[in-house]
Amino acid sequence: MGQSNINLAALIGSRICHDLISPIGAINNGLELLGMSDAREGPELELISESVGNASARIRFFRIAYGAASDQSLGRAEVVSILSDSMHGGRLQVAYGPLDPQPRWAVRMAFLAVQCLETSLPYGGRIEVTCVDGRWDISGHSAKQSVDQGLWGLLAGKEVDELAPAHVQFALLASVAPDAQRKLQTDIAPERLSIRF
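Given the sequence above, the corresponding structure tokens read:
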């Protein structure tokens, strides 16, 4: 996929996320109004509320990971909030290290790397995101891994015959790295997986 196609796909991703966040926010507002009224609370409302919260968190994550990138800065509080909300209730914990605002394109790459690690750590674990002197390291720590060598090969510039939608983050990260003038480096160890750029 050429650079123009990547940019077009990112704009499509941004548009979809932008258009979905409003109705989900409206549903959430409606649930809050129901909570303030005499409406009986029950498992149904709890399930709807939890589902809306999960959908909203994932869309916020996808908006960064799959949306259009720029040099606009994202503050630590916003990034930590998005990561925390999108991983809430899951098997993975994510620790985001950078204290200063970071450019959106770099956070986008970090989010894609987090998704690559999430795919490879289906039994849970901890992901640490660090940035020192502009060099990013996203590492996953777990005693149990499920590493698909073909998918990880994509990060090294290799081709795969077929790519499932659930694994698009590997191809996209490999495609956007050259645009950001970054080279991806990976390390696969028994209890640690790392993606650096």
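The chain has six helices and seven strands. Try to locate this feature in the token string yourself.
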